[in-house]
Amino acid sequence: MYYNEETVIFFNGQFIKAKDASANLYSQSLHYGNGVFEGIRAYNTTEGARVFKSYEHYKRLKFGAEVMNIQLDYSEEELTQITYELLERNGLKDAYIRPLVTTGVDMSLLTSKETNLVIQCWEWGKYMGDKLLRVKTSSFQRPNPKSCFVEAKVTGHYTNSILSTNEAKNNGYDEALLLDMNGNVAECSGANVFMEKDGKLYTPPRGHIMAGITRATVMDLCKEEGIYIEEKHFTLEELKTADACFFTGTAAEVVGLQSLDDYQFPLAWEKSQGHKLMKLYKDEVLGLRQKRKAS
Ligand code: PMP
Fold first, then answer.
1. Per-block average pLDDT, block size 10, for the chain (295 residues)?
2. Which of 87, 123, 170, 191 is the most buried (most CB within 10 A)?
3. Which of 40, 210, 219 to mutate to test the pocket of ligand 1 (most atoms within 8 A of CB)?
4. Are 130 and 109 in contact (CB under 8 A)?
5. Cα(124) to centroid of ligand 1, in Å?
């Protein structure tokens, strides 16, 4: 699904076949989860492949590397250029792009001096699908921001996302919603959350969540379209009185919720602000809004 005999990846400065690449079993990333990654999408637009918010994604990758003391010498511009070349070499226009920075052979708990950069890409539909999600409140919380850098996409952090997703799916739900250490709603295992009440939107502020690039895009779209949006903490009890709710993420894009535990969101998805934003987001990633503004 992710690669075949012909797939090309970028690995430590070279474009090589995925089937010819190998990783070291003594890598610190494999043993301790000390690595950083990104999830980016490219869209097939009338002007060809367009990597959406490439600079922002690579800025976040570099931020993660910096806080983990991992050396990454590429600039955002260089990484973007490599990404476009990689898409071209794989003949892909609509694609999911996965840059991953791993550390070297080192069993100490000090960041290894050796760094590996791999960029992979593959065709991937909307991660959480198109149907409305049935979500379970997780028994796992998002990590305490004093125990790690929650805004860095560190590979090891994702065991928290895996625990919550396993729990939700094993109980017959589609996805998990996690609270923060103070009991406020934080985010989904791999996406941010917005709730709608009386036509207004609310989303948790930064601090205990991933600073989602889709979240920021959706907030910008709200401002442009005159949709009320406020960053504020809210509890699970408040969320269970909301009219509607949706998740945002690069892989998931904008996806609505049908229910949270036993609570059914009462507003029809098609009538919600989330639905409107889902369509606006699609236009934005395809560059159609930019084009309209320019003409
Ligand atoms: N929260 C978590 C925990 C995530 O892993 C992601 C995916 N990066 C998001 C939110 C959404 O972020 P983005 O919109 O930048 O993909």
1. 96 98 96 98 96 98 98 98 98 97 97 97 85 98 98 98 98 98 98 98 98 98 98 98 98 97 98 98 95 85
2. 191
3. 210
4. no
5. 16
From CA 179, how far away is CA 143, in angstroms rounded? 10
In this predicted structure, what is the pLDDT of residue 293?
Answer: 85
* Whole-number pLDDT of residue 136: 98
CATH of region 133-286: 3.20.10.10
Residue type, 201: L
Q: Which of 93, 123, 97, 120 is nearest to 286 (CA)?
A: 93
CATH ID of 8-122, from 3.90.226.10, 3.40.50.800, 3.30.300.30, 3.30.470.10: 3.30.470.10
Q: What are phi and psi of 207, to 5 degrees?
A: 140, -45
Largest CA distance in the chain: 57
| Under 8 Å between Cβ of 61 and 36 | yes
Residue spans per domain, the chain: 8-122, 133-286
Residues 6 or more apart in contact with residue 274 via CB below 8 angstroms: 194, 196, 244, 245, 246, 254, 256
How many other C-beta atoms can be found within 10 angstroms of the C-beta atom of residue 145?
A: 15
Q: For residue 55, which of 15, 13, 83, 93 has the smallest C-alpha distance?
A: 83
Which residues are marked as active site? 153
Neighbouring-strand partners of residue 98: 120
Read off the tokens for 90. Answer: 């794989």
CA 71 to chain centre: 23
Torsion of CA 283, 285, 290, 295, to 10 degrees: -50
Provide the pLDDT for residue 274: 98
Q: Which of 250, 254, 255, 277 to mutate to test the pocket of ligand 1 (most atoms within 8 A of CB)?
A: 250
- With 0-12 / 13-18 / 19 or more C-beta atoms within 10 angstroms meaning exposed / middle / buried, residue 148 is middle
